[in-house]
Design a protein that fits this description.
By secondary structure, this protein is mainly α. The chain is about 65% helix and about 0% strand. It contains 13 helices and two strands, in the order H-H-H-H-E-E-H-H-H-H-H-H-H-H-H. The two termini are about 40 Å apart.
Length: about 350
């Protein structure tokens, strides 16, 4: 919306600042944080009244979780409100990449909301049918991948890039769509699995958003992309504004989600934010780098896969409990120790991922 002020720049020179992605990213960050700060208490109060008993606690989970009974969930609504409201003001809404990322975010958020709704109303940790949920996610992600592929220039738009190699490309052709869809769905569900402790997923999501904000800005700038010898993807710089909004919404939400949490993010937030980051990775052609930057989310997802596979094949469990953060809780680690150490890991993974921009 504020981008329209650029048309008045010839008459009022101060409006030139709206041309700069960096300025609008900062504006989006502050705006989304303010929206969550201001409307957060009202949303929490409303959800507490409507949900009654709040998010159900798993009977086989860590004993420390039972004291959290009654805490409302669906806190992702707070973050989505901040992100969407901020992007409406600061993002360039003529960008196809902006619309694709927001479409995935809202759609995944809707799937997560329905899952949370079923859990709360049935007071069971079993929500949306796994097959139906994944089918819906892949349909949305596939549409997003197809749009991204056609928004770019062939054959680069359907190619897979590799970190550390400036000229190595693998043209996947039409198979880029299922590959990209898998990346988006995988990111959404990996973040969803990580969201199990107060504040655990919030900070790593912010770290990943900051990292991809840098990547989007550099990839969308021909001068910087040429200097770093990374692939130039016209138009993706605008995604930095969305990622700035994610950081701001994360800061606002963390105020209420920090231990002891007044509200849980729920699938509404974790699935939406994971899908958002995954879509940005696909748009900027940094799908493999996302595995490095989101290393914490990958660890959490792999722990579940390994646990399930081991139990089905051998009848034995590798971890005391999956996802991985629960394993350490079962080893009597205090929740805050698990959370802070996982935050540290997320920063280290992000730094390693950003290092690939220069190591070419």
């Amino acid at each position: 919306m504020l981008m329209m002020l650029v048309e008045l720049a010839d008459e009022v020179s101060v409006f030139n600042v709206f041309r700069y992605i960096t300025f609008r990213t900062g504006g989006a960050l502050i705006t989304s944080a303010l929206i969550v700060f201001l409307f957060g208490p009202m949303i929490i109060a409303s959800l507490r009244v409507r949900q009654g008993k709040g998010q159900p606690i798993r009977a086989d989970g860590p004993q420390t979780h039972f004291k959290k009974a009654g805490t409302p969930t669906m806190g992702g609504l707070m973050m989505l409100s901040g992100i969407l409201g901020s992007c409406a003001l600061w993002a360039n809404l003529s960008s196809v990449y902006v619309w694709v990322v927001l479409m995935v975010t809202v759609s995944f958020g809707a799937i997560g909301f329905y899952d949370d709704y079923l859990k709360v109303t049935k007071q069971s940790h079993l929500g949306f049918s796994g097959k139906a949920r994944l089918s819906a996610e892949f349909l949305i992600a596939g549409l997003a991948a197809w749009t991204i592929m056609h928004a770019g220039q062939a054959p680069f738009s359907s190619s897979l890039t590799f970190p550390f190699f400036k000229d190595l490309l693998l043209n996947l052709g039409i198979f880029f769509v299922p590959f990209a869809a898998f990346v988006i769905v995988g990111a959404g569900n990996a973040v969803n699995l990580t969201d199990g402790l107060d504040g655990l997923a919030t900070v790593p999501v912010m770290v990943a958003a900051a990292s991809f904000g840098v990547i989007a800005y550099l990839s969308g700038n021909a001068i910087f992309a040429n200097y770093l010898q990374i692939h130039f993807v016209p138009g993706t710089g605008e995604l930095a504004v969305i990622l700035g909004a994610v950081i701001g919404a994360g800061l606002g939400f963390l105020w209420f989600n920090a231990p002891p949490a007044a509200i849980f993010m729920g699938d509404t937030g974790s699935l939406a934010l994971g899908g958002l980051v995954g879509t940005v990775a696909v748009a900027t052609k940094h799908e493999i780098v996302m595995v490095i930057i989101g290393g914490l989310f990958v660890m959490e997802a792999l722990s579940v896969i390994i646990q399930v596979a081991s139990f089905k094949l051998t009848g034995k469990r590798i971890f005391l409990m999956a996802p991985l953060h629960h394993h350490f809780q079962k080893q009597n680690w205090p929740e805050t120790r698990v959370v802070v150490r996982f935050w540290i890991l997320s920063v280290l993974f992000a730094l390693a991922g950003l290092a690939t921009l220069k190591l070419r």
